């Protein structure tokens, strides 16, 4: 007999499981991942704490202590700054800027955001803990961030022979923070990442420059090179480099260059320019009896030497001895030793020479005024005058800042015809070859033989944008100023309705006729340059 099942015995569908949202799943897995990372971090710390590294038990704790408050890095920066090499000075400044960014990011923001406790140092031998352990939060490591920021900044500018030891020291400081029990490895890795980002990030506001500019190698040209320097006439300007902050503390750049030249090339003739002598006349007389004309001095002296070398068809040996030595550094010659080595190897290159000449009828090549780096007019000439007056007391960059504020506050634009078009020019910069930086005083080029002029102007209407222009100059981004124009032709003509044009060439200011033209002698000058650069 069939019976109907009871109502409660009927089969019911199995209840569906509720699917967890993806966000809920991630929130549950995240603590697990963090716990695993934490366990791995503590395991790695215990392994380092239990390690015995002979020889480092004494060194690493003291290295870690020396890195407190950035003392190690600022000491290194000071040593690089005293080297008188532009690349090392830039490296020191970039590394210090990296620390200035990384340190507050870690110590003010990072540590207070994560509030991680310091490791328990039971496994760390007491001889490693020679000083009181820090009481601040552990994550990220401030010492590691400063070390990475400085090393990254130095690596952007300095040669490998300097950058590699700095990087090795930074790695040792980072490891010492774990070895002495101050941090977990994860704290150190986070600090290294933040520091490296800060050091490399300095390129956003201050682009890294190439070490040297490219130069066409001179082929098939005969140059007489002797082991003892016979045939070399070196003209020395002892007044160069007077703006160097180390003058009076260390021997002058020209004195050191002359001493090395006499030692390495004893047969070379050395001519010293007296204070009351005409520089161009001395250089022309020296070029008349030379096989190779050498110049020891700053950019102004090298400029005059280039003119003498062009007139006598001689190769020019540039030996840096000035304050800035822009042209020598563009060639890759930063020391007298590098210049002498370039001469001995007989490596010649051809570089462009820019000139300005009157447009009056009958004006010939004898009236050309050459420049190897830059020419400028408008407020630039006033800025140059003001900067040079303040430079000896304040240094290059503070003097530039003060000069910019003073000059732009009172300067007025000048009326000029630029390639036939009338303009009110407030500032104008003309570079021999294209410059890479955008600031008020560009200093580096990728080529010395591109056949072009780099022209940058600020033209105005009835009102000069002074505040914005000052900010743009101090920030190194002149292109954001209203009225900024830039182009790269092979020539330029200027006419002044007022009757004369005041022009600065390679730092030397002079007055020119009402009408002038700028041009290039492409590959006109033979110079000695380091091989392989």
Automatic annotation (TrEMBL):
One Pfam family linked to the record? PAP2
For this protein, what is any one GO molecular function term? kinase activity
Looking at the record, the residues that make up the DAGKc domain are: 208-359
Naturally occurring in which organism (per UniProt): Actinomadura fibrosa
Q: Give the protein's recorded name.
A: Bifunctional phosphatase PAP2/diacylglycerol kinase family protein
What topology does it adopt in the membrane?
Multi-pass membrane protein
Indicate, by first and last residue, each region the UniProt record lists as having compositional bias (Basic residues). Answer: 7-20
The record's keywords, sorted A to Z, are: Cell membrane, Hydrolase, Kinase, Membrane, Transferase, Transmembrane, Transmembrane helix
Give me the ranges of the annotated region Disordered. 1-30
Entry's transmembrane regions: none
């Amino acid at each position: 007999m069939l019976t109907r099942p009871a109502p409660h015995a009927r089969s019911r569908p199995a209840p569906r499981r509720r699917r967890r949202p993806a966000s809920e799943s991630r929130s549950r897995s995240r603590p697990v991942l963090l716990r695993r990372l934490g366990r791995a971090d503590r395991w790695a710390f215990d392994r380092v704490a239990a390690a015995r590294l002979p020889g480092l038990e004494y060194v690493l704790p003291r290295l870690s202590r020396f890195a407190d408050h950035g003392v190690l890095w600022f000491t290194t920066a000071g040593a690089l700054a005293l080297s008188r090499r532009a690349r090392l000075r830039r490296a020191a400044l970039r590394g210090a800027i990296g620390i200035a960014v990384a340190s507050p990011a870690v110590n003010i923001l990072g540590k207070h955001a994560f509030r991680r406790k310091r490791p328990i140092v039971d496994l760390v031998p007491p001889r490693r803990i020679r000083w009181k352990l820090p009481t601040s939060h552990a994550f990220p490591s401030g010492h590691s961030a400063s070390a990475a920021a400085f090393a990254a900044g130095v690596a952007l500018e300095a040669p490998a022979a300097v950058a590699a030891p700095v990087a090795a020291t930074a790695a040792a400081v980072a490891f010492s923070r774990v070895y002495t029990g101050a941090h977990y490895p994860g704290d150190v890795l986070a600090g290294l990442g933040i520091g490296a980002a800060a050091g490399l990030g300095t390129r956003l506001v201050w682009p890294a420059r190439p070490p040297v500019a490219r130069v066409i190698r001179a082929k098939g040209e005969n140059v007489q090179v002797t082991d003892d320097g016979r045939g070399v006439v070196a003209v020395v300007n002892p007044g160069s480099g007077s703006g160097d902050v180390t003058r009076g503390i260390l021997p002058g750049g020209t004195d050191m260059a002359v001493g090395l030249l006499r030692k390495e090339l004893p047969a070379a003739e050395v001519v010293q320019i007296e204070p009351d002598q005409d520089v161009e006349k001395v250089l022309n007389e020296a070029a008349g009896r030379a096989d190779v004309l050498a110049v020891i001095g700053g950019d102004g002296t090298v400029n005059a030497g280039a003119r003498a070398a062009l007139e006598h068809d001689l190769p020019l040996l540039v030996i840096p001895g000035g304050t800035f030595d822009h042209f020598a550094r563009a060639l890759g010659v930063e020391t007298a030793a590098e210049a002498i080595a370039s001469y001995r190897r007989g490596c010649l290159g051809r570089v462009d020479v820019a000139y300005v000449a009157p447009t009056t009828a009958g004006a010939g090549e004898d009236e050309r005024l050459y420049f190897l780096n830059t020419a400028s007019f408008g407020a630039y000439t006033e800025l140059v005058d003001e900067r040079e007056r303040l430079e000896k007391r304040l240094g290059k960059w503070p003097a530039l800042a003060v000069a910019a504020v003073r000059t732009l506050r009172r300067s007025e634009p000048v009326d000029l015809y630029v390639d036939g078009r009338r303009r009110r020019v407030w500032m104008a910069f003309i570079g021999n070859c294209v410059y890479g930086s955008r600031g008020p005083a560009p200093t580096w080029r990728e080529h010395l033989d591109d056949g072009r002029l780099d022209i940058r102007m600020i033209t105005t209407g009835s009102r000069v944008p002074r505040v914005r222009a000052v900010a743009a100059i101090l920030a190194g981004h002149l292109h954001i100023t209203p009225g900024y124009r830039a182009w790269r032709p092979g020539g330029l003509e200027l006419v002044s309705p007022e009757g004369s044009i005041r022009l600065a060439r390679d730092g030397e200011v002079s007055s020119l006729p009402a009408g002038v033209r700028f041009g290039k002698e492409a590959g006109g000058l033979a110079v000695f340059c380091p091989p392989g650069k």
